[in-house]
Amino acid sequence: MSAVDVREAITRAHREEWARVVAALTRRFGDLDIAEEAAAEAFATAVERWPADGVPPNPGAWLTTTANRKAIDRIRRESKRDDKQKQAQMVYDDDPPEPPGAIDDERLRLIFTCCHPALAMQTRVALTLRMVGGLTVPEIARAFLVQETTMEKRITRAKAKIKAARIPYRVPSAEDLPARVSGVLAVLYLVFNEGYLATGPDTDPVRHDLTAEAIRLTRLIRALLPEDGEVAGLLALMLLIEARRAARVSGSGELVTLGEQDRGAWDAALIAEGHRLVRERLAAGVAPGRYQIHAAINAVHTSARDVRDTDWSQVVALYDQLARLDPSPIVALNRAIAVAELDGPEVALAAVEQLEDQLAGYHAYHVTRADMLRRLGRSQQSRAAYDKAIELAGNTAETAYLTRRRDQLG
Amino acid sequence: MQYLVSVIDDTAGLATPDEMAAISAFNERLKAEGHWVFAGGLAAPSTATVIDNRGEEAIFTDGPFLESKEHLAGFWIMEASDLDVALRLAAEGSKHCNRKLEVRPFR
Question: Is residue B85 a contact partner of residue B34, using CB atoms and an 8 Å limit?
Answer without folding.
Answer: no
